[in-house]
Amino acid sequence: MKMNKQEIQNLILITIGSSFLACGVVFFLYPAKIITGGTPGLGLITHYLTGISIGIAMLAINIPLLIIGKKHLNTGFTIRTVYSMVMTSLIIDLLILYVEFPEINSLLIATLYGGVTVGIGIGIILKANASAGGTTIIARIIANKTHLKPGQVILFLDAIIVISVGIIFKNFEGVLWSIISIYTATIVVDKIVTGGVSDKLVNIVSEKTTEICEAIMSDLNRDGSILDGQNLAKNHNKSIIFVVVNVKSIIQLRELVMAIDEEALMIVMEASEMTGTSRRYFT
C-alpha cells in the first residue's frame, strides 16, 4: 500500500475512530456490563469469562478472522483494518489501566452514550475505508458464498452475541440494554457513513408534467430529470419526474403536485447516500 496523502488521512481518521470506539467501550459499556455488537462485544464477553484484558481478547478474536478472510479483502483494506484492530485494542487497555472516568450510575445514560460513542468510532473507521473488527470480515465471506447481504449477516451475528449474554450471565435485562446499545450504534454509523442525508428521492407520474416541473423549479428552487416510460401494456407513453428534495419540503411538494394534478402518482424514497447537489442547475 503506497503511503500518499489520502492514506495518511485514512490513518489519522482510523486513529480518531479507534479512540472513540475505545472510549465508548471503556467509559460507558464496560463499567455497566453492557455488551455491544461485533468484536468489542466478543472481547467483553471473553474478558468477563476469562479475565483476559479486553484489548488482548479482541486481538485474539480478530487476527484469526482476518487471516481467514484475507483472500476476500484487498491489500490496502487489510492493512488499514489491522491498524484499526491494533489501535483499538491498545487504546482500550491503556484507558482501563491509566484513566479514571467518573462513575455513571444510570444504565440508560451508559447504554445510550456508549452506543453513540461506539457508533461514532465505527463510522469514522468505515469512512477511512477500513473495518473495526471481525464480524464485518465474516459477513463479507458469508455474503460472497450465499445470497445473504452483509448487513443481514452482521445483524445475525450481533443477535448471537447478545443472546449469549443472556445465556451465560442469566441476565435478560442485560440483553435488552445491549439491544438498545447496538441499535443506537447502528443509527450513528449509518448517519456518519451516509453523511446524515436528510433528502428524499421523489418520482412523480402525471399527465401534467410540464406544469409540475415549472412549479418545482419556481416554488422549490430545485432541478430534476424527466424520464420517458410506458405502462405495462406498452400502449401508453408517460413521463416520470425524478427530483431530490429536502425532507422539510415533502409536504410542500405534495401540495404543489396535488394542486396541479389530483391523479398524479408520487413515490417518496429514502436518499441513503448522496454526493453533489440537488439544487437548481437551470438559469
Structurally, the number of domains stands at 2
Uncertain residue ranges? none
Characterize the biggest β-sheet: 4 strands, antiparallel
β-strand amount: 5-15%
How is this structure best described in words?
The protein is α+β, with helices and mostly antiparallel strands and 283 residues long. The protein has 2 domains: 5-194, no CATH class; 199-270, Alpha-Beta Plaits (2-Layer Sandwich), CATH 3.30.70.120. It is built from 10 helices and 4 strands. It has helices spanning 5-32, 38-50, 54-69, 75-98, 107-127, 134-145, 150-169, 172-194, 209-220, 250-260; strands at 199-205, 224-230, 237-246, 265-270. It has a 4-stranded antiparallel β-sheet with strand order 2-3-1-4, with helices on one face. A hairpin with a 6-residue loop joins β2 (224-230) and β3 (237-246). α7 (150-169) runs antiparallel to α8 and α9 (209-220) packs antiparallel against α10 (250-260). The chain is elongated, with a radius of gyration of 24 Å.
